[in-house]
Design brief:
By secondary structure, the chain is of the alpha/beta class. The chain has two domains: about 95-130 and about 155-320 and about 490-535, 3-Layer(aba) Sandwich (Rossmann fold), CATH 3.40.50.1480; about 330-485, NAD(P)-binding Rossmann-like Domain (Rossmann fold). Helix content is about 40%, strand content about 10%. It has a nine-stranded mixed sheet. The longest helix is centred in the middle third of the chain and has 24 residues, at about 320-340. The radius of gyration is 30 Å and the shape is globular. One of its GO terms (biological process) is mitochondrion-endoplasmic reticulum membrane tethering.
Length: about 575
């Protein structure tokens, strides 16, 4: 009887079952031979605390650019966030060294790349009109069925909750009157698609504008290019150096034949520059509008010292700014910024938030919702009590600095996180700032020879101690959400509308209405800004009857709350 080739011949002294078993083992050994070196290698015990540095070293291959950068490079390199379109072909060339002109032949601007203007214009249009309806009828839309077209027309009438329809509504209502005709506004804000809508609204209302960025990392290069193409004198790009930052501000202010008479500031740097470098120009300013805690603090200091010679509007403490931009915006954007830069999972993480004002409240609410264990530091007993009632533990930073995974500052103060704190942090602790200024984290103390800076991702630096410990620093201590991510368009519409109204009010106010001091936005204007945004939610206000209004001692049309009311 013949035996099939596939059947192994029996071996003397070995049963058929045992023979098949051996054949299978031999087949598996050949199949997985590549694992032989792994299985034969001696087992090595994993070590943690003492040898942590072994896990944090990256080999650098010959001929490959090292990830480690010098301190000076780390502080000035330009990196673009996911929110910004970039053309890397000329990243190494400073915009100050380029000769660029727009389609009209003007070179009165300095941006990264004027060729990005078309892309930036599209972003501005989306910010204006919402991502669900562009307002521009394409060829495909012209071919739509009538029912679909009617649905889109209805969508056009009911504003999307992600657009800036309220600011556009203000533009349409007031552009015929040109309430800012003759106004020469010099501005220093974040330059994003949303602020571009504000700038173009001011221009539509009759103003001439010159603009720079208040943050070296928050500029969307394509948006700056679109503004320059439209004729706005804008001097800004993402990744400016400190010298570039002040140069851009100076170019906005110092121009032959043009003198600013209004200032729109975010952080107080522009106001400070004009006050120090151009005192004659400062004296002729008709009004200043400031939207940040830091900038408002500087204005109050000038006022207290008797050096504020122009009226100023404190937009930061208006209700629509405090409750919506500071609270609701930060509640959403804090997570966006942290996720984009670190991919961190928050469930079970220990986070300390320094400051429980409106920004801090927003950050804590978001972190708590994702399961983080949140601690609060506070100097104000009222805010501290609010934190306790909201379920957070109020501590001193020194008490928890060794154990927390994330440190977030949002106080508007300086040196909240010092070198001593940074030295005591655990390995891989994430440190970031949600306040406007970069003074809250003592980043300067980290620029020493014994520490190594390693850029690992856009706006993410690993600061490495001699023992191998790493601290993850985001945006070099600057404002996290606008440096590393984006913020909701709808919330920025509220702030931008408030700023526009404040400028109109100060510019058109009769002489004597506002003295040389700092003022809050009138309550009636706050309510007007809010009312412009209610249609986005199809909200319907209840109206007082004459008898009810008389009983409460109110005007039926508002204001509905006294100035001392706490929302």
């Amino acid at each position: 009887m013949s035996v099939p080739d596939a059947m192994p011949l029996p071996v003397a002294g070995v049963g058929v079952g045992e023979e098949l078993k051996q054949a299978k083992e031999k087949e598996d050994a050949e199949k997985y031979s590549f694992m032989a070196t792994v299985t034969k290698a001696p087992k090595k015990q994993i070590q943690f605390a003492d040898d942590m540095q072994e896990f944090t070293k990256f080999p650098t291959k010959t001929g490959r650019r090292s990830l480690s950068r010098s301190i000076s490079q780390s502080s000035t390199d330009s990196y673009s966030s996911a929110a910004s379109y970039t053309d890397s072909s000329d990243d190494e060339v400073s915009p100050r060294e380029k000769q660029q002109t727009n389609s009209k032949g003007s070179s009165n601007f300095c941006v990264k790349n004027i060729k990005q203007a078309e892309f930036g214009r599209r972003e501005i249009e989306i910010a204006e009109q919402g991502i669900f309806y562009t307002g521009r009828e394409s060829g495909n839309q012209r071919d739509l069925h009538d029912g679909v077209r009617q649905s889109m027309e209805k969508q056009k009438q009911v504003a999307s909750a992600e657009d800036m329809s309220a600011l556009i509504s203000l533009r349409k209502r007031a552009q015929g009157e040109k309430p800012l005709a003759g106004a020469k506004i010099v501005g220093c804000t974040h330059i994003t698609a949303q602020t571009a809508v504000l700038i173009e609204t001011l221009c539509a209302l009759g103003a001439q504008c010159r603009w720079s960025a208040c943050n070296i990392y928050s500029t969307q290069n394509e948006v700056a290019a679109a503004l320059a193409e439209a004729g706005v004198a804008v001097f800004a790009w993402k990744g400016e150096s400190e010298d570039d930052f002040w140069w851009c501000i100076d170019r906005c202010v110092n121009m032959d034949g043009w003198q600013a008479n209004m200032i729109l500031d975010d952080g107080g740097d522009l106001t400070h520059w004009v006050y120090k470098k151009y005192p004659n120009v400062f004296k002729k300013i008709r009004g200043i509008v400031e939207e940040s805690v830091t900038g408002v603090h500087r204005l109050y200091q000038l006022s207290k010292a008797g050096k504020l010679c122009v009226p100023a509007m404190n937009v930061n403490d208006s209700v629509t700014k405090q409750k919506f931009d500071n609270l609701y915006c930060c509640r959403e954007s804090i997570l966006d910024g942290l996720k984009r830069t670190t991919d961190v999972m928050f469930g079970g993480k220990q986070v300390v938030v320094c400051g429980y004002g409106e920004v801090g409240k927003g950050c804590c609410a978001a972190l708590k919702a994702l399961g983080a264990i949140v601690y609060i530091t506070e100097i104000d007993p009222i805010c501290a009590l609010q934190a306790c009632m909201d379920g957070f533990r109020v501590v001193k930073l020194n008490e928890v600095i060794r154990q927390v995974d994330v440190v977030i500052t949002c106080t508007g103060n300086k040196n909240v996180v010092t070198r001593e704190h940074l030295d005591r942090m655990k390995n891989s602790c994430i440190v970031c700032n949600m306040g406007h200024s970069n003074t809250e984290i003592d980043v300067t103390s980290l620029r020493t020879p014994e520490l190594t800076w390693e850029r690992v991702r856009s706006q993410v630096d690993h600061v490495i101690w001699p023992d191998g410990k790493r601290v993850v620093l985001l945006a070099e201590g600057r404002l996290l959400n606008l440096s590393c991510s984006t913020v909701p368009t709808f919330v920025l519409s509220i702030t931008a509308t408030t700023q526009a109204l404040a400028l109109i009010e100060l510019y058109n106010a009769p002489e004597g209405r506002y003295k040389q001091d700092v003022y809050l936005l009138p309550k009636k204007m706050d309510e007007y800004v809010a009312s412009l945004h209610l249609p986005s939610f199809d909200a319907h206000l209840t109206e007082l009857t004459d008898d009810q209004a008389k009983y409460l001692g109110l005007n039926k049309n508002g204001p509905f709350k006294p100035n001392y009311y706490r929302y």
